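Sequence in, structure out.
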Amino acid sequence: MSENKYTKWVACWGNATSITDRKEAVYAKDITLRYPIRMCFSGSKLRFRFSNLTGTEAVTISEAFVAHTPITFEGNKQGVIAPGKEIESDEIPFNVTAGETLDVSLYFADFTQMNAGTLITGPLSSGKYSYGNFANADELPADLTRNTNWFYFLNTIDILTEEKNFALVCYGDSITAQDWPDYLSIRAAQEGFNNVSIIRRAVSGTRILRQYDCITYAAYGLKGATRFPIEMNVAGAKSVIIQHGINDIIHPVGAEVNQFRPWSDMPTTQNLIDGVEKIYIAHARSLGLNVWSGTLLPIFGWRTYNENRDVIRNEFNKWLRESDKFNGCVDFDKAVQDSADPKKFADGFDSGDHLHPSAKAYEAMAECVPAELLK
């Protein structure tokens, strides 16, 4: 296909950016990050967005490569990301064939605050880090390299591709930060839905209505009103699936138990509905997106489970299924629940903590996404 057929920028890979889990070590130096990214579209150019959204200090990318091609910033090999900001690379001429995997490698020479990133998992989501500068190396040295599921700074990859291609955004919390979007990408490729990219915008622990401003829970991420407008910056997006709200329901335990998780944070069903309508749907519609709801999964057996929390979950799910505010509903709850006891996961579908699904259940979640969202 000739290059002039490639006329539209579409996000082909995307992640959220949040506050990393700040334990004892919060800085790195002389470190290479490498992330293999499966390219779902063919195209002729790439551009990269890097985010320091939750950083409090500037971050300098000393050099970056896609495969062995330099990623540049206004013609320079270095890119500086101010605290709380995002930057975009130059447009990089690069012939891409759909289905290939490209390594994106970043090197940080000086002390770097590793405060902006997100933990994600799934069969397509893993990276490596090495001590030293190996950003342009064919292979990373085994004795200096470890695997990681933390994706630091790399936020979005856009490709100049065909007009028919588009992005589907998956927005949520740890359920979406884990495996089902990867399985949805695999399903789309296997079933011949070759014009859709699956863009994950998910942060573990996040709530619609609240966020934590203490270092113990800061990694639980930003509240919906802060996250959503930033994370919906997705080139070529057509639709968004919103599967969010379970943490609003399960987090409050009372200040006498935990000072950061008071009962005053406990939402009513109407609070959740209002939040979705005012924060999510209104903004998504302003961008011209189709908006699909995703129901909340079973929580029976989770350590803060009680009947009142499940009443709220079921009332909220009823609205998510029936409201005319959405273009449709992806009924994840129905896909993973025990048909004989719907408050529980089906056999083999519980990861063991009674909140997060098993790998088999994540595959079932991907399978239940209506085909019309992938066409």
